[in-house]
Specification:
This protein has 308 residues and is an alpha/beta fold. The protein has 13 helices and 6 strands. The protein has a 6-stranded parallel beta sheet with strand order 3-2-4-1-5-6, with helices on both faces.
């Protein structure tokens, strides 16, 4: 029996729109699987769907944390598991829509007992990185966790930081936690993935979206966040693509032109990682969102899965 449907895809691929189109045909509610949409006051930079875009379809796990709070994969698994059951009890289909592939993996495959983030340790790592650079931090990671270091690029600041945090918190490398046995989900999922056939079109969409965000006041939004008394650029929320680059610009660390280039480039890199994740999923049904029949294909796959 089909319990829920994933609608996954890279940024700017049309996931939100596809989820809405599905819900117009099949009674459904949307569960956001997006590590940025969980945060309040981060609307423009996260491309949070508006009330008009949600078209009256219930959406969950949007605006559930303040920017200074953390939200982990374990939090998502707990919340999403509860929501799937609640939505099913209402006689509707849960649609899990978004692009945070780590959360999808955690929900489908289970979690190991990874320690939660420690903001003080993260600040220490960030401060050290500011002195010696992320390649230098990568070298430090190689000394304590060569397995993880071998699969990370020297400038992958987010993952290097997290791996060093875990080691410094626990004395055990993150690769040790990742190797522990995990209990998979009891739910039956159908996984739909939006993989644009024309990478150039996706890149154009990303650039256009960034321009629209700026027109909508993205930098003002970041200024308001930075004006919060407890603001800290090490907040987990500030790791979201675009926000990091905006903070660098507003602090005078890069100029405006560099900010524009860095923001679009970081979003493209995110999209590339998201597509790599999707290609590695054995159970995913990949569809080109640029084709006219993508909605019909999605509905057909769902109906087939529900009839089994």
């Amino acid at each position: 029996m089909l319990d829920a449907v994933f609608v996954l895809g890279p940024t700017a691929s049309g996931k939100t729109a596809l989820g809405i189109e599905i819900a117009k045909v099949i009674p459904a509610e949307v569960i956001s699987i997006d590590s940025a949409l969980v945060y309040r006051q981060m609307d423009v930079g996260s491309a949070k769907p508006t009330a008009e875009e949600m078209a009256g379809i219930p959406h969950h796990l949007i605006d559930v944390r303040d920017p200074f709070e953390s939200y982990s994969a374990a939090d998502f698994v707990r919340d999403c598991t509860r929501l799937i059951k609640e939505i099913q009890a209402r006689g509707k289909l849960p649609l899990i829509v978004g692009g945070t592939m780590l959360y999808a993996k955690a929900l489908k495959e289970g979690l190991n007992q990874m320690p939660t983030s420690d903001l003080e340790v993260r600040r220490e790592v960030e401060a050290e990185a500011a002195e010696i650079g992320w390649p230098g931090m990568h070298a430090k990671l190689a000394e304590v966790d060569p397995i993880t270091a071998a699969r990370l690029m020297p400038n992958d600041s987010q993952r290097i930081s997290r791996a060093l945090e875990v080691y410094r918190q626990t004395g055990k490398p993150i690769s040790w936690y990742q190797a522990q046995e995990q209990k998979g989900s009891d739910f039956e999922f159908l996984t739909l993935g939006l993989l644009p056939g024309d990478r150039k079109v996706l890149h154009e969409r990303i650039a256009k979206r960034f321009d629209i965000m700026l027109e909508q006041g993205f930098l003002d939004e970041v200024k308001r966040l930075m004006a919060m008394p407890q603001f800290d650029r090490a907040w987990p929320s500030m790791r979201a693509v675009g926000y990091r680059q905006a903070i660098d610009y507003l602090l005078g660390e890069i100029d405006y032109d560099r900010f524009l280039v860095a923001g679009v480039a970081a979003t493209r890199q995110l999209a590339k990682r998201q597509m790599t994740w999707m290609r590695s999923m054995d159970d995913i049904h990949l569809m080109d969102p640029l084709t006219e029949d993508v909605v019909a294909k999605a509905l057909a796959l769902i109906e087939d899965a529900r009839s089994r």
